[in-house]
Structure formats: structure tokens, C-alpha cells
Write a structure and sequence with these properties.
Blueprint (H helix, E strand, L loop, with lengths): L2 H34 L1 E5 L2 E4 L4 E3 H4 E4 L1 H4 L5 E4 L5 E4 H10 L7 E4 L2 E6 L9 H11 L6 E3 L5 E4 L10 H13 L6 E6 H6 L6 E7 L8 E9 L5 E18 L14 E8 L1 H6 L9 E3 L14 E3 L8 E8 L2 E9 L8 E6 L11 E7 L2 E4 L1
Parallel strand pairs: 1-7, 2-8, 18-22
Antiparallel strand pairs: 1-4, 3-5, 6-8, 9-10, 10-11, 11-14, 12-13, 13-14, 14-15, 16-17, 18-19, 19-20, 20-21, 21-22
Amino acid sequence: MTIAMTIAMTIAIYISRLASRCVAISAIAMISAVSNADTIRMVSSVRIASGKEITLADLADLDGADAESLATTVVGRGENGAFEIGVDRVRQQLVVAGANLRTIEFIGEKTVVRPLRGAVADTTDAARTIACNGGLGVAAGTMASSAPGMRLIDPAKQPATGTPLAIICEMVRNAFGADACDLRLEMSADQLEKIAPIAGVRYEVAKKSALRSARIEFEVIGRPSTGTETRTRIRVNPRFEREVLVARADVRRGVRADGESTTIETRMLTLDEASDAVDPHKIGETTFIRAKSKGATVDRTDIARENDIHRHETVTVRREVGMVAIEFEAIALEDGTAGDIIAFEKAGTRHSRDSRPISAEIVGPGRAVIR
């Protein structure tokens, strides 16, 4: 073997070893990057009231600051029956909301969303729009709040003048969308005075928290033509003027939710209260499933419709396979009303090898369907 061939083989072996080391280093870097990424882990199933907005926090366990900052992003809305939300749909909704997903790892493929068992559905956007246009009377401009030293601002009454208050009102209204029709912004008189516009100053407003939250933080930046820039932190509390169902007196579990036990009042609600409050015009024939004190607002989870199926009841379960429909009798293992998905056991199979629970959706009294 010549010296030239020996040198060539030595160089080739060196290059091969160097390439292997580079590949190993790249792999380690990739593994390190993945291990340090924030994670969004899809849960297997959740129960959400029909009509209620579904946020990322409802569907997934969030780990890391970047992931947790997306918790309030709306990715869907509850329905009357069960359905699935896939991870691709979640990704799409987050991107539309302006999220940066480069540092976030998704775990899991989908979440099954089932209707909240026995809960009364929330109002639809269409019904809420009707209430806005003709149902509820609203005060104009600025009014006193029930809290001392606080003022309620009607954002719909604020002209687009470029003042700090007008900019804040527009930002919050856009964030709440269809829910903004009865929206009010609660602010202290001191804060309103701090952001009063000054001639010759140009204003910008930066959000410092999620806009759809119980407390919204802003920073108002004032840039005068001459002089020093100013920065002022502002807190805004969303409030909603809604008609709510209120207990007339102390109510026990099992009492019917009707005109004798409840009344309708117009109240100013926080974001959480507005989300939970039952629509007083859509309760139907319902009963209280937990006690309420006199004057308390009735939430969706406080009342439930009369059960269409009771535990231990024998019902007809239908299953469609292609063009063929199969019906059989089954024993209900839970109570439920139309739209609920509950467990059943085939009749006559108890203590046998075929006594495995099956899940079916209630479609009416004594009837259920396997979807």
C-alpha cells in the first residue's frame, strides 16, 4: 500500500468519525430542546355544558409559562351530544388567536367532549343578541357601581376618539365578541382620573393579561410632543347586566324550580357568575339538585331537568350498523336526561361473561342510542 493510499484512508476514517459525532451532538440537542419545551397534554374526556365556550384549559393539562398563557383561548363550544376535538383543531385555533407554538409540544390526539350531566344549557349567541337588542334596558355612558368608589362604563357608548378609555373599551369589546352586548367595565374613580386625556399627548394601550378574564390589566402609555413619556397601570373588571333566576326563599334539594320558588331579577354579574348563571327563560321543568339560600343566584349546576331514565330502569337501546338497526333491552346503571351519555348493562347478562357495561346516549324516556 502506498503512502498516498494510507493518508487517504486515514482522512476518510477521520471524516467518518467526525460526522458520527456531529450527528450524535445534533440528536442530543434535539432531545434537549424537546425535553425543555412547554407541553399541552390533551385529556381523554371532559364534560362541558351545552353552549358553553370551551377553553384550552378545559381540554388539556398545561405545563410551562408559554402553554399556561394560552389557557383562556377558546377552541370550541359545548354541544347537546358527545363529540371530539382533535389536536389539529386545537393547533389551528391557537394559531388563529396569534399563539407562537414553536416552543410548545402537543401530547395526545383528541379529547371527547360530553354534555354536562343534568345541567341546563347556557344561552346561545343568537338568544343573547335578541336580549341585547330588545330584552334588557341598559344605562348609557358612565354610572355608579354598587362598590364604593367604583364606576361602570358602557363600552358601546364610548366614541372612537383615541383616548385611553376609548381604546380600552374597543379592545375589550372585540375580545368578548357576541358577549359584549351587555358588557360593562368596572373601574375606580381614581383610575379614570389617571387616564383622563391631556391635550397634545398621544396614547397607546398595551394589554398585560388575557382580555377575556375576570380582571384585565392594561398599561396606558402617554407620549407627549415634548417631555417625558408616562406609563400607568390600569385594572378593569368586566361586568355583565343579565336577567338571572333568584331563589325567593331558602330552597331545599328536590324542590321544583318554578314561579313559587324562584323569581327573575336583573343583576350585574362578574365573568364567572355570568358564565355559570342559568338562563331564566330556558329552565323548562327542572328541580333543584342542591339547596340554595334566599336571594342567591341560581347556577346551571344548581338545577337539573327531570330524568328521562332512572338507575335500574329497563330501557330500549338502539345500535345502527350500516343499514341495519339492532335493538335490545338494557339496564341503566345511572340516572340521566336527554343528551347524557350513561352506562348500561345488557338485560339478562348479570354475573355472566357478557356483563360488560356499555355507553349510550339518552334520546328520550326509556330510549338510548349507541353512537
